[in-house]
Amino acid sequence: MALLGQLRRPQPEPSAGTPAETVKALVKDDEPAATVDFSKQRVVMVTGGTGLVGKGIEAFLASDDEAKNESWIFLSSRDGDLRSMEDTQAIFRKFRPTHVIHLAAKVGGLFANMSQKVEFYRENVLINDNIMECCRLFKVKKLVSCLSTCIFPDKTTYPIDEGMVHDGPPHTSNEGYAYAKRMIDVLNRCYHDEYGCMMTSIIPTNIYGPHDNFSTKGGHVIPSLIHKAYVAKQTNGTFEIWGSGSPLRQFIFNQDLGALAVWVMRSYDSIEPIILSVPEEDEVSIRDVALMVAEAAGLREDQIKFDTSKADGQFKKTACNDKLRKLRPDYKFKPIRQGIKEAYDWFSSNYESARK
């Protein structure tokens, strides 16, 4: 288990006025990876790059012309432990990114967040601190970090917008994760004010799609439901949904988020966060989502059961995407029914290898 003591830097920190030779000694010139083309306009490193959003970015880049001028590195846990400053510095020395999209985090669904509040806080604080400090040390031109709408206050007015992040405490069910993520927003401003770093953050609503974690215990709502529905289809059993299904959520397909995250990295030059979300009118209930999943799986109505003894979590956290709409009025989101069908079909076709 990573200890908070790791937050102490293993080497002295260079300040804004540190002599060049001191910085050079701290940031060593290791042999770069053969897969990195340093002649490109940007060398973009994606932490957590093999996860849901990283795969969404990859899918977008496959048909994007501008990506030809960029070298992309998608990190996985095999590249090092981002809770360790030593491992994180080694990764930055190896790839020498000009830009970083920071997706790596300890994540999970409602019940995982409720049962592991300490771990969700401590591990995410370590990861975020190491990434942000290395971006400063290695003079990364831009860092884009991924937050979540769960960081917003529990008791608030709706819709929530980017200026309301710190207006009150988050919902108690995920306060460990939420406070760790909130600190990224605080440090974006601190690093900019003290060191002139360009660090910003995106705040997506609930993400789903191919390559998700389809765990029925620790996964988020849509992938968890997809796994349960798949099993019910294979066994002719019951498709059980935890809770009443009444909470409302906005869902964004991972390839939509991938496309918008790349746009933020290239074109959004503000330290203030930006919400990446479908419009407010596209908010749906968990019940409706469950029924769409059941439809995608081809389940009968009598196979569907809601277990109302389980907690619902926060009732709603409607997000306003006005800032995004002003900057990208042309962007078209994938309809949720279509996205759920694609995610279910992917899981069904990749059941043996899918994370679950």
Query: Based on DSSP secondary structure assignment, what is the total number of beta strands?
Result: 12
Quote the distance from N terminus to C terminus.
Answer: 23 Å
Flag low-confidence runs. 1-34
Helix and strand element order = HEHEHEHHEHEEHEEEHEEHEHH
CATH topology of the domain at 41-211 and 251-282 and 318-334: Rossmann fold
Helicity, in percent? 25-40%
Average predicted local confidence, pLDDT = 89
Round the Cα radius of gyration to an integer and report it: 21 Å
The amount of beta strand, in percent, is 5-15%
Total number of helical segments? Answer: 11
CATH architecture of the domain at 41-211 and 251-282 and 318-334: 3-Layer(aba) Sandwich
Shape: globular
CATH superfamily of the domain at 41-211 and 251-282 and 318-334: NAD(P)-binding Rossmann-like Domain
Order of strands across the biggest sheet? 2-1-3-4-5-10
How many strands, which pairing sense, and closed or not: the largest β-sheet? 6 strands, parallel
CATH class of the domain at 41-211 and 251-282 and 318-334, named Alpha Beta
What would the keywords be for this entry?
356 residues; two-stranded parallel sheet; Rossmann fold; globular; 13% strand
